[in-house]
Design a protein that fits this description.
Number of domains: 5
Distance between the termini: 73 Å
Strand order of the largest sheet: 3-2-1-4
Number of helices: 19
Order of helices and strands: HHHHHHHHHHHHHHHHHEEEHEH
């Protein structure tokens, strides 16, 4: 099927004209031009709303306000209308855009207005005094570290305000003093100046709390989007409760700031745990006990088997996977080792006489050898060195040890030679350091 990007403006116009003249059906026109039926329907929608210009390829980035996003998603989920109709009504560029908003909404993610873009804020830095730095930093902290508004207000660069706040967080007020090219600052701060500036910063933090910006930061932090209760917007409800208890901030202002209803918050606050939440909490206890019992080695599938067998229940592995994700636990997975042979330089390796001819007509004609690593217990390792006779695929000698070194290989060859005194076959190995070392060469020659 032809890709949509190869259909130019003339072909789109011709296809739309054919349909409007009722020459044939939508499906036949889409098949004729090698596009999906949904793509052709999108052309019709854009032609109907924007005219012929809607069929032209646009390099413009469309921006949609947050109110439009919520209205479009809510209408689609609550009414029996198609996505094409929603896109036509709200002038949304494509169904893909609407589907992305629906996915975010159902995933309990907040829909936001399109940003202004950093390109507008890429202003050049300018020289500022120490007092200006303090004033700019105070303003940015008071407004929830809103870099964009700070850059527009004071005409500075993003690098400047970001570095000043980072210095203040790490070293306090003294870190904002410019010490470049000087052993000491020109004007030392007195205790009174330092106290005055610290009071300004403290007042800025209080102002930020009064503005409700702390609630946004708490939600955008390390909170889990999914909880055991599976209630939408529970992260916002929890943030409001904590901020009200900690800072005595008015609940109605917090609800307005986070765009949720006050009645919805109190309904959540006074709710009783539902049946689903009780099941999830009980399952989470079982998962944690089983996880600790098996030292974190169980994934969702094996966890389901052990829990169902021990407690006589019938949980689905998807349900257990969701609970493990909420609890932040996962199975311990061993990393795949792509190579365990430590090679030595090739000039120390012997000639490859065998050349992949792994057939022998009789005993003691060709020997193969290698060292195999085994893991056991809590991080312990064992190494098995063995010799295989290609005549009957029999292990004629083997040695087990805790180190893969020359001594392990010497013991193996000594045992093989003692059991086969009259045998002088060539033996084949890889180019590991045990087999290409000068010590082994001397041992075999002598």
């Amino acid at each position: 099927m032809q890709s949509n990007k190869h259909i130019d403006y003339e072909q789109k116009s011709q296809a739309v004209t054919e349909y409007l003249q009722r020459q044939t059906s939508q499906a036949k026109i889409a098949a004729k031009y090698g596009v999906k039926l949904s793509s052709f329907q999108t052309w019709l929608r854009k032609y109907d709303s924007e005219g012929a210009d809607g069929l032209k390829k646009s390099n413009k980035y469309n921006k949609y306000p947050v109110e439009l996003k919520y209205a479009a998603v809510s209408e689609y989920l609550s009414e029996s209308v198609s996505q094409q109709e929603i896109c036509k009504k709200y002038k949304i560029s494509s169904k893909t855009q609407l589907q992305r908003w629906i996915l975010w909404y159902n995933g309990h993610k907040e829909l936001k207005s399109a940003g202004l873009g950093r390109s507008r804020l890429m202003t050049k830095g300018r020289k500022v005094t120490f007092d200006e730095k303090v004033e700019i930093a105070r303003y940015c902290i008071a407004h929830g570290r809103d870099y964009q508004s700070t850059i527009r207000k004071y005409n500075i660069s993003y690098q400047q305000i970001y570095s000043w706040l980072r210095k203040y967080d790490n070293g306090g007020i003294d870190a904002l003093v410019d010490r470049r090219g000087k052993a000491k600052p020109e004007n030392e701060l007195t205790d009174m100046d330092r106290l005055r500036i610290e009071n300004k910063m403290l007042e800025a933090k209080k102002q930020r709390i009064r503005n409700g910006d702390t609630a946004i930061k708490k939600i955008e932090g390390d909170r889990k989007e999914t909880t055991l209760s599976e209630i939408r917007l529970e992260t916002k409800y929890t943030a409001i409760k904590e901020l009200h208890n900690e800072y005595l901030y008015p609940i109605n202002k917090l609800c307005k700031k986070l765009q949720i209803s006050r009645s919805g918050y109190y309904k959540w606050l006074n709710r009783k745990p539902g049946k689903r939440q009780i099941i999830n909490e009980d399952l989470s206890d079982k998962v944690m006990r089983m996880y600790k019992k098996h030292n974190g080695t169980l994934g969702s599938h094996r966890m389901r088997i052990f829990i169902n067998r021990e407690y006589g229940v019938n949980y689905n592995h998807k349900h257990i996977r969701r609970i493990m994700k909420i609890l932040g636990i996962s199975s311990v997975i061993r990393r795949v080792r792509h190579s365990c042979t430590v090679s030595s330089p090739k000039e120390q390796a012997a000639e490859n006489i065998l050349n992949r001819d792994f057939k022998a007509d009789t005993y003691n004609q060709k020997w193969l050898t290698d060292v195999t690593e085994f893991k056991y217990g809590n991080g312990n390792k064992a190494y098995l060195s063995a010799i295989l006779d290609l005549g009957d695929n029999r292990i004629i000698a083997w040695v087990l040890g805790h180190s893969s070194n020359n001594e392990l290989v010497f013991k193996m060859f000594h045992a093989a030679i003692e059991d086969n005194l009259n045998a002088h076959p060539p033996f084949h190995s890889d180019i590991g350091v045990q087999y290409t070392s000068p010590a082994l060469y001397i041992y075999l020659v002598l």
